Amino acid sequence: MKIGIPRSLLFFYYYPFWEELFKELGIEVVVSDKNNERIMNKGVKYSISEICVPMKVYVGQVLDLVEQGADLVYVPRVVNIQKNVTLCPKFLGLPDMIKYSLEGMENKVLTHKIEQESDDISDWKDYQIFLEVFDINKKDLKRALKKASQKWQEYRVMHRKGFTSDQLLEDTKRTPDTGDLTIGVLGYVYNIYDKFVNMDLLGKLREMNVNIVTFEMIDDEVIKREVDQFAPRKKLFWEFSNKLLGAGYHFLKSDEIDGVIHVTAFGCGPDSVLGPFLDIDSDKYDTPFMTLRIDEQTGESHLLTRVEAFVDLLRLQKTKEARKC
Amino acid sequence: MKVSFPYMDTPVLYYKLLDLLGHDIIIPPRPTQHTINLGVKYAPEFACFPLKVLMGTYLEVEEMGADTIVTSGGHGPCRAGYYGKLHQKILDNAGLDLDIIVFDAPKDWRPFLKNLKKIKLDNSWLKVMSVIKTAYALAHSMDRIEKLIHKNRAHALDSRKVSDAWEEIQQKYMEIENRQDIAGVEKWAREKLAGLEYDFPKPDQRIKIGIIGEIYVVMEGSTNNDIEEMLNELGCEVERSHYISEYIDSHLVPWKWKEYQHILDKADNYLEIMIGGHAKRSIGHIVDYKERGFDGVIHLKPFGCLPELVSQSLLDRVSEDPDIPILSLSIDEQMAKANMLTRVEAFLDLIKQKKEEEIA
User: Fold this and answer.
1) pTM for the whole thing?
2) Strand order from edge to edge, sheet including A28-31
């Protein structure tokens, strides 16, 4: 049996986990192609127009996998990875959207709920459906999950050493950035690592000799502390938005970060709440903050111009400050 | 302390709740284009439409002298539960002195009681309980009348007269003091409505439309171009998936929850779990309307609404299976009445044709 994994949404956060899990269970995995025009167009065609671009990409990837001959597409319903905080409603309804809005997909989806208490999604209870679908025993499943968890932990350790997910997943150059400027790139993994939709923003920044810091590199404790400080009683409702919020405030306060770019998809609901808080408070901490909105029609020169201008501005400010000292 | 509150459907309920506690109240005006423009100016561009309208309302009442807003909250994952905090941030940043008191469902009792103390003034807890009971009865009484209007106005010889009567009835509800008064007003309202002229067609010839979707744009007429009135004037009976009394029962009164469970159960085939907002209820209501012999469903949602985008993705399928026509409309600050009317009329033509074919 061939299981398809769409290269979108949480792929960039959990792929090492899934890869190891299925490998250990001896199941063949096919990953969809990197996002491209063909996949994007398919996604746009089969989604409702108003939904955010990462969801459209996901739809395109799912259809691509079916064409590639995947027997089942793995669409987990990630509900929560800590208590009392869920993911965005679109993630909660994702398997339903795939099953019922795309023709012929109803029996081609492998889905199960993930409701765990930490980011390490290896509690076997959520994976019981695997026992039946893959005809394996409990012991094998638990062992595979344990291995997957280890692999994923290693992946997360590498993040903390300063590597971005694209570097880790694509095995390209593994040398830390050595630029003269550091920018906090704030965004969900599926927005900042989808090179097609964001016109290779990270690559462009690296070419400009900029060091990149993302939320994955920040310690959980730092994020938790910032979130608690922001709202002791009522944090945001969405898992990754809280992560961005914590990382965002950390970026604003940190002396090592020269500026922050918030990458957000057109029509993103959680970001429409998160954005204004960071935007308003960036004045208070005197850290330049730019919102970069992406969608399926982002023009490359438009994006490049804005990013270049932002980087130039940060460099100018930095030299001015250095002269003052 | 000068208190105000959000405007949704009718200000009577919030007003009576605060008035019976003895507050100094600024009644928010019904949202207009001016309100929306104000809200759009201050709110984030991609915030959902209800947040923008409320922002506008808060700015309007601030100008009228209010210094406190009482509103309800939520626990997500729909954005609406976070409105209070975001509004407060934007108002503070604009240098306006307005304090927003947000009542979340009492999962966590301490902040709830703290908020309650803020608006309780020097009333005894006994009095507070009695006021809450009166408001509860008021919500149910008004909704009974409103439901009656949504049905009967479709067949009134002059629908304008029914709408005027509703305005008058709301005014009467504004003056109640206790539960006996409510019963009196309700009786008077029923007589008043019965005294108007109607021309009821045979039951099988009536066209019934259900309105589902996000609660604010479904309930607040000023945001949806008074779609109920529009449909009534075109001769259709209307029922909404949201009435405030049902909202109270299904969200705040635990022993009433099971009365609403069957609606959710009906959505199980399309949406397995609750995903926030009223997405699952919206889907359940479509199935329910079909079972109850409705002819069509109109789905309203603010542009970019998170939970309703999921239900919208499922609409094609839900429309096919139980075979009921659905029109989905996305609402934002640029929704023009003529546009909406054209789409609604076209939808109704389709429904009438379908109905004729079925009868023949």
Assistant:
1) 0.92
2) A28-31, A2-5, A72-74, A109-110
Could you tell me which chain B residue has the CA closest to the CA of A232? B111
A50 vs B270: CB contact, 8 Å cut-off?
no
In sequence order, the 6+-apart residues with CB closer than 8 A to the CB of A167 are A173, A174
Give the type of residue at A191: N
Domain with B19 in it: what CATH number?
Answer: 3.40.50
Fold of A2-159: Rossmann fold (3.40.50)
Question: What residues of chain B lie within 8 A of the CB of A266, using their CB?
Answer: 46
Nearest Cα residue to B5 out of B31, B25, B19: B25
**Considering its fold, how many domains does chain B have in total?**
3
Instruction: Give me the tens of pLDDT residue by residue for chain B, a chain 360 residues long.
Output: 899 999 999 999 999 999 999 999 999 999 999 999 999 999 998 898 999 999 999 999 999 999 999 998 888 788 888 899 999 999 999 999 999 999 887 777 888 888 888 898 899 999 999 999 999 999 999 999 999 999 999 999 999 999 999 999 999 999 999 999 999 999 999 999 999 999 999 988 899 999 999 999 999 999 999 999 999 999 999 999 999 999 999 888 888 888 899 999 999 989 888 888 899 999 999 999 999 999 999 999 999 899 999 999 999 888 888 889 999 999 988 888 899 999 999 999 999 998 888 877
In this complex, is the C-beta atom of B267 within 8 Å of any C-beta atom belonging to chain A? no
Residue A204 has a CB neighbour count (10 Å cut-off) of 17
Amino acid at position A112, single letter: H
| ipTM of the complex as predicted | 0.89
As given in the structure block, the two tokens for residue A254 are: 């940190």
Q: Do both B138 and B276 map to the same domain?
A: no
Q: B3 — contact with chain A (CB < 8 Å)?
A: no
Which residues of chain B neighbour A233 with C-beta distances below 8 Å?
A: 108, 111
Residue in the structure block whose two tokens are 């009921």: B324
Contacts of A268 in chain B (CB under 8 A): 46
The residue extents of the domains of chain A are 2-159, 163-324
Same fold, A2-159 and A163-324: yes
CATH topology (fold) of A163-324? Rossmann fold (3.40.50)
Q: Which domain holds residue B32?
A: 2-123
